[in-house]
């Protein structure tokens, strides 16, 4: 690169640094900016003029408390965020939109919309890839590598295959999939994808993936299940050796407030009724969990769970009888 090219690059980098400083603090004096940039106050004035020429409303005021500041306006040029900052901002806003921050859902969605309008085209596509490929159920997801999320989101958007290492049977095996959606649960991030090795839909925990990459091989999207519902049912029941369904005599909202979204699927069944689908290592555990909700309920599936209800009821009655108070001899 010749001298002129190096000078132009240095000026561009300095002007971008100046813009970043103006976005960090409300007011900077000329000497402060000159010291931070390692230039003279005269050069700062020239760089401010360059920003104004680009459309940034940099205001200058004189006197005590005066200096340079970015003025208000609805027509600001593209927001100065690097790739990592844009990804981190989008992930944080999506967490709020998914309910991870109580009461922040609508505000987060509005902020995402504004972010989309002011980001440069390149970063706008990346954020749209993430926001368009994410669904959620529950709140409070554990953090994962945002670069992995973005890689998977791009693959969902571009309809290209992805591969990654994933633990199975005590060893890490390579998986090749057609990615469909990222889903945020109340605890973790999951990927709903069509597993090409097993020829079926599968959900994968993103925090368990290693060496995630998007391939160049495109695929034609298949008819897919609802992403959030599929993943939630898998997390709450299909991963366990035993599944059970109950009809609970309480509203779905009431029961959802008592059971984490990752522990059970709760569906409304009309006024004052809901269906609960859950799984566990043993049917007794599921039964006791529903019993402790404190509502009347009926067993829908499986049939053998009804027998366990009767057996446990007899055991509880026997335990209660054993600790009944002895009659007072003086009252005989």
From TrEMBL:
Organism: Streptomyces bingchenggensis (strain BCW-1)
GO molecular function, one term: DNA-binding transcription factor activity
Keyword flag Amino-acid biosynthesis: no
Domain (HTH deoR-type): residue spans on this chain: 11-66
PANTHER family in the cross-refs: PROTEIN PAFB, PTHR34580
Protein name: DeoR family transcriptional regulator
Record InterPro entries: CBASS_pafABC_assoc_protein, DeoR_HTH, HTH_11, PafC-like, Tscrpt_reg_HTH_DeoR_CS, WCX_dom, WH-like_DNA-bd_sf, WH_DNA-bd_sf
Keyword field: DNA-binding, Transcription, Transcription regulation
Taxonomic lineage of the native organism: Bacteria, Bacillati, Actinomycetota, Actinomycetes, Kitasatosporales
Entries under Pfam families matching the protein: HTH_11, WCX, WYL
